[in-house]
Amino acid sequence: MSALVRESPQSSTAAVDPSAGAPTRKIIHIDMDAFYASVEQRDDPSLRGKPVAVGGSSQRGVVAAASYEARVYSVRSAMPSVTAKRRCPDLVFVKPRFDVYKAVSAEIHAIFAEHTDLIEPLSLDEAYLDVTVNKQGIASATAIAEAIRRRIREATGLTASAGVSYNKFLAKLASDHRKPDGLFVVTPAMGPGFVEDLPIGRFHGVGPATAAKMERLGIHTGRDLRERPLAFLQERFGKAGPYYHSIARGIDERPVRANRERKSVGAENTFNEDLFAFEAMREALQPIGDKVWRICEAKELRGRTVTLKVKYADFRQITRSQSTARPVASRAELERATIALLGPLMPVPKGVRLLGLTISSFLPEAEEETEAQFSLPL
């Protein structure tokens, strides 16, 4: 009887370049199909087959998620509810139930954990899994992905799409390839060719602004990107240049990181009426700051950077940030930083429909202790 050897580190380490002859990793990306909307359709049979938007239906509402029936009308998440209703007059709005979504997400993650501890959650409804070495000793990552999708359907009544490949970038692309309720595999032999024919806007990690910049530079597909030298990409895209150079060749060396470090804590609120006055905005920021600080306290997080987000009535959005040498140590300090960022924006050019607040640049726990020690009076 042979013992199953399991990896003890909390990240995958095998090489990912298939041309280098190194061990090939087996990565799965699982993405639930229209997760919030699908949960609502599952729990309310009258919604099945109808275009559903999770979110507020008011003038100030925003779509948090849309069912596939709604997506036919180009209704998308983050879209103003007014626009969504205009595109789809029969759209049914449902208030979000985040406690339910979190509970279902926990069920799904428990299924992932039946196969591996190397799970990197990206959100409630998607995650990367490294199954190169897995708990059940299954040799085929495709078989594991099929088993996970089957178990999710049995346990939750929901469908999931899966992508299987030798790195995170390609697994993510693969899970999108046959949505909804699909499974697609990109093998090492397929990887470079699969990438070269993709429009640059489909590349994970290339946002709309970067895609537009690449288009202006004549980079329209993965093939175009691959033809640009590393020096060219570094000069025009800075630190992201080497990443773009690699993914154009189907190479992605990022490991799957379990217990991924939180990079920021934020909260925001959209208001029923536009705000114009400084005091009204200061008051509106109080519960937002309270929520952010509660999360920081609960997670024992301390960050150096405070960012204020402002969205105006015409949907133009700006952010303003302030970083300090040591982390924000109290709710009062957070409020002072918030007011310092808000003040210079007054008077506002238009009414403000949304305010948000984020803390980032977190310190490692050991570094926090050192900072605290040095701040003590001698």
Adjacency order of strands in the biggest sheet: 5-6-1-7-8
Write the CATH fold name of one domain. Answer: Dna Ligase, domain 1
Our count of helices gives 14
The largest sheet is: 5 strands, mixed
| Class from helix and strand fractions | alpha+beta
The mean pLDDT is: 87
SSE layout:
Elements: E1 27-32, H1 35-43, E2 52-55, E3 63-66, H2 68-71, H3 81-87, E4 92-94, H4 98-112, E5 119-123, E6 126-130, H5 141-156, E7 160-165, H6 168-177, E8 183-185, H7 191-196, H8 208-216, H9 222-226, H10 230-237, H11 241-247, E9 264-275, H12 278-299, E10 303-312, E11 317-323, H13 331-342, E12 352-362, H14 365-374
Parallel strand pairs: 2-4, 7-8
Antiparallel strand pairs: 1-6, 1-7, 2-3, 5-6, 9-12, 10-11, 10-12
Helix pairs in contact: 4-5, 10-11, 12-13
Brief descriptors of the model:
378 residues, MutS, DNA mismatch repair protein, domain I, DNA polymerase, domain 1, Dna Ligase, domain 1, four-stranded antiparallel β-sheet, 12 strands, disordered N terminus, disordered C terminus, DNA replication
